[in-house]
TrEMBL record:
The keyword ATP-binding does not apply. Keywords: Lyase, Metal-binding. SUPFAM superfamilies: Aldolase. The keyword Translocase does not apply. Belongs to the HMG-CoA lyase family. InterPro entries: Aldolase_TIM, HMGL, PYR_CT. One of its GO terms (molecular function) is lyase activity. Residues 7-274 form the Pyruvate carboxyltransferase domain. NCBIfam families: PRK05692.1. It comes from Oceanobacillus kapialis. This is Hydroxymethylglutaryl-CoA lyase. Transmembrane segments: none annotated. It holds the Pfam family HMGL-like.
């Protein structure tokens, strides 16, 4: 095994974690939660999404969240931005990093953003250009890399093509997503190896969902190839609104526990992360069973 000595964990719970919840978390609770995450030592927190409230009402308070949180100087506060109108709102509240998103499968992209992949790329190009001109970094999410709920297995060539185009547009980092949690360690090795044949490892992060309990194993597979950046969500929050049956993200506290036991540095305080998980569980009923297990062990 050839694991990196340090891993960067990118906390996506406040956005990817909450976007699929039926219960609306109060604004004050979101702000307090994000402040707890900042105090835990995360260098990166995705705090919300500037998607139209009609599509994701759970995140309709994105501007208020961005205005209300306490910002640590060593933390990047990012948000998902679907289009130029969303970018305008994000710039108004001085988001540090703009996140754009696209699916590797045509059908999922149509379901997710009601546009073809080609049309979505045109939107992303304009958003990336304007974000860069406003001195904001841009991160790109590529969904359904390891499988699509509508089309099945995704073509690696399609993924490579999207990665190349996004990087050419000025996207600085790519988050490679197992949106529905179908990946296994051998598939992760195959896809990651293909990506590393063309792109530097520091341009790549992995985003695993834990639908079938394979997320941690998939992290180890990617780490063994030198990948050192991973997305996760406190409490394993999350899911995909357009992928029936897809469950939450890899739980941040589970990832931290594993890395800590392995001697891999993260600079994150796991006790404070557990406290943040317990806090948000008061507002998100789906976390109850996870938290009972966590607090009793």
């Amino acid at each position: 095994m050839n694991f990196p000595p340090k891993v960067t964990i990118k906390e996506v719970g406040p956005r990817d974690g909450l976007q699929n919840e039926h219960e609306l978390v109060p604004l004050d609770a979101k702000i307090d939660w994000i402040n707890m995450l900042s105090d835990s030592g995360f260098s990166y927190i995705e705090i919300s999404s500037f998607v139209h409230p009609k599509w994701i009402p759970q995140l309709k308070d994105a501007k208020e969240v961005a205005k209300g949180i306490k910002r640590h100087p060593d933390t990047t506060y990012a948000a998902l931005v679907p289009n130029q109108r969303g970018l305008e709102r994000a710039l108004e509240v001085n988001i540090d990093e703009v996140c754009v998103f696209i699916s590797a499968s045509e059908t999922h992209n149509l379901k997710n953003v009601n546009k073809s992949i080609a049309s979505t790329m045109q939107v992303i190009e304009k958003v990336a250009e304007e974000a860069s001109s406003n001195h904001k970094t841009v991160r790109g999410y590529i969904s359904t890399v390891f499988g699509c709920p509508y089309e099945g297995e995704t073509s690696i060539d399609q993924v490579l093509s999207l990665c190349e185009k996004l990087l050419e547009m000025g996207v600085e980092e790519l988050s490679i997503g197992d949106t529905i949690g179908v990946a296994d360690p051998l598939q992760v090795e195959k896809v990651t190896t293909a990506l590393l044949n063309y792109f530097p490892k520091d341009k790549l992060a992995m985003h695993f969902h834990n639908t079938r309990g394979t997320a941690l194993a998939n992290v180890l597979s990617a780490m063994n190839l030198g990948i050192a950046k991973f997305d996760s969500a406190v409490g394993g929050l999350g899911g995909c609104p357009y992928a029936k049956g897809a469950t939450g993200n890899l739980a941040t506290e589970d990832l931290l526990y594993m890395l800590q036991r392995m001697g891999v540095k993260t600079e994150i305080n796991i006790e404070k992360v557990n406290e943040a998980a317990s806090f948000i569980a008061r507002y998100v009923p789906t976390l109850s069973s996870h938290q009972i297990k966590l607090l009793n062990n």
